[in-house]
Amino acid sequence: EVQLLESGGGLVQPGGSLRLSCAASGFRFSSYAMGWVRQAPGKGLEWLSGVSAAGVNIYYADSVKGRFTISRDDSKNTLYLQMNSLRAEDTAAYYCAKTGGSSSSWWFDYWGQGTPVTVSS
Amino acid sequence: EIVLTQSPATLSLSPGERATLSCRASQSVVSKLAWYQQKPGQAPRLVIYDASNRANGIPARFSGSGSGTDFTLTISSLEPEDFAVYFCQQRFNWPLTFGGGTKVEIE
């Protein structure tokens, strides 16, 4: 059974940093591209970042480029999102998601339960 | 950036009725469009990928069609568990983008 378990969310002051983790199990993690998607309270879905299998290609939304860094540790079956220079508008539930393939099937067939991030003073 | 516009914003229907949801892209995405279902307090669930392929475990009452810029998600006969918000997503171009969602509610 595929499972994605996010952690690392919480309350942080504007300008602060957080590192989200996503522990994956139930599939061959190293063979799949992975991504992060967020959802502000009462709003729609916003794709943030993606990393292909083996970390060959990395992509970011303009809204987080230069502030967020995606990475993966295939030895630990874990995906990360380092978030710096956080702003109030980054407040959202952050989802880790598995894609349908290694590098081109950029739809998300499994999602974690989400971890909440609140940016407030 | 490819903008996806979903309509209507809200669809009020009764169980057993047919639901037709639309997603229009600002430029062609060929057939590289997916649909997700999201219920309150839950993560999204993949329903359709590449315009017309049902994801694992999705009932046959769900179908997707379209190509280019106009796409449709059809639920042939609504079951109580189908009332939710549905989002479309394109994977044709970076950045990946989602539509604003259509809420299917019980009339």
Kindly describe this structure.
- The complex is a heterodimer of chains A (121) and B (107).
- Chain A is mainly β.
- Helix content of chain A is 0%, strand content 50%.
- Chain A has no helices and eleven strands.
- In chain A, strands 2, 4, 5, 6, 9, 10 and 11 form a seven-stranded mixed sheet that branches.
- Chain B is mainly β and 107 residues long.
- Helices cover 0% and strands 50% of the residues of chain B.
- In chain B, strands 2, 4, 5, 6, 9, 10 and 11 form a seven-stranded mixed sheet that branches.
- In chain B, a hairpin with a 3-residue loop joins strand 5 and strand 6.
- The N and C termini of chain B lie far apart (35 Å).
- The model of chain B has no long low-confidence stretch (mean pLDDT 97).
- The interface between A and B is medium-sized, with 23 and 23 residues.
Outline of this structure?
Chain A has 121 residues and is mainly beta. Chain A has no helices and eleven strands. The model of chain A has no long low-confidence stretch (mean pLDDT 96).
Q: How would a textbook summarize the main sheet of chain A?
A: 7 strands, mixed
* CA-CA gap between termini of chain A: 40 Å
Instruction: Give the structural class of chain B.
Output: mainly beta
Assembly state here?
heterodimer
The main pleated sheet of chain B reads as: 7 strands, mixed
Mean of residue pLDDT values of chain A: 96
Binned, the helix content of chain B reads: under 10%
Topology of this structure?
The complex is a heterodimer of chains A (121) and B (107).
Chain A: E1 3-7, E2 10-12, E3 18-25, E4 34-39, E5 45-51, E6 58-60, E7 68-73, E8 78-83, E9 92-99, E10 108-111, E11 115-119
Parallel strand pairs in A: 2-11
Antiparallel strand pairs in A: 1-3, 3-8, 4-5, 4-9, 5-6, 7-8, 9-10, 9-11
Chain B: E1 4-7, E2 10-13, E3 19-25, E4 33-38, E5 45-49, E6 53-54, E7 62-67, E8 70-75, E9 85-90, E10 97-98, E11 102-106
Parallel strand pairs in B: 2-11
Antiparallel strand pairs in B: 1-3, 3-8, 4-5, 4-9, 5-6, 7-8, 9-10, 9-11
